[in-house]
Amino acid sequence: MATKTYPFDVVDFFKDDEDIAGYLEEMLAIDDPKVTARAVATIERAKNLPEDPSLDFAGRLNRAVHALGLRLAAVPVESRAA
């Protein structure tokens, strides 16, 4: 018997903006630009933000963050052993 699979979309599990913000925080912590780009696209879908070809990645990230009522802040990372 074949295993039955179902499509997975993290957007289906967001209950509110706090969930989406937590998702973004975790994706940013991975520290991978591809993961961050995918997270921004996911947030755009979750918030029903229209495509805007005039926006570069920074613009898309800014728009997604503001749609959640957040702002980005720079914080120091733990120092790495030399």
Keywords:
82 residues; mainly alpha; Addiction module antidote protein
Class from secondary-structure proportions: mainly alpha
Tally of strands: 0
- Biggest sheet descriptor: none
Q: DSSP strand (E) fraction? A: under 5%
Helix content: 40-55%
Protein name: Addiction module antidote protein
Organism: Brevundimonas aurifodinae
What does this structure look like?
This protein has a domain at 14-67. The chain contains 3 helices and no strands. The termini are far apart. It is mostly helical. Helix 1 packs antiparallel against helix 2 (33-46) and helix 2 (33-46) crosses helix 3 (57-67). The protein has helices spanning 17-29, 33-46, 57-67. Helix content is 46%, strand content 0%.
Please summarize what this structure is.
This protein is an all-alpha fold and 82 residues long. The N and C termini lie far apart (54 Å).
Task: Write the SSE topology.
Elements: H1 17-29, H2 33-46, H3 57-67
Organism: Brevundimonas aurifodinae
Protein name: Addiction module antidote protein
